[in-house]
Amino acid sequence: MSMVDVLSASESNETQPYLLVLNKMDLLGEEDQADLLKTCNSLGLGPACLLSCRTGDGIVAFLNALQEQLARMCGDPRTGSPSPTQARHQLSLQKCLEALGCFAEYQLMDLVLAAEQLRLARRQLGRLTGQVGTEELLAIIFKDFCIGK
């Protein structure tokens, strides 16, 4: 069973938002890329982004699509009326969007800074979903509790 079969047969596609990301676009010609996107659309696979991790092509378009998807799902915190009711959700979304924007700027200048921006964006999304990293958990424990005294 191909990935296309799995995605087109999935019932959750209609209820769960997603963004289909297809890598290795550098191996396809422009006509093949257009055909692939057309096929994804005709199968109802939803939004699709082509990118190349090797060359970096399509990364900015992917980040823009990701920002749009987050804004649709959670409201755009920059507009002043996001759907999450808690202030920390609004702040985390704003920081995530800012980090993704910074990544787009840094990716051509400094890959280390660009990677750091992606890490910051992931951390902010992790705060929304409850996924806290080991380092953050240890920092909370040692900050709030007196251990070993």
From TrEMBL:
Residues 46-146 form the MnmE helical domain. PANTHER family: TRNA MODIFICATION GTPASE GTPBP3, TRNA MODIFICATION GTPASE GTPBP3, MITOCHONDRIAL. This is tRNA modification GTPase GTPBP3, mitochondrial-like. It comes from the Eukaryota. InterPro entries: MnmE_dom2, MnmE_helical, P-loop_NTPase. GO terms for biological process: tRNA methylation; tRNA wobble uridine modification. One of its GO terms (cellular component) is mitochondrion. Pfam families: MnmE_helical. The gene is LOC106545131.
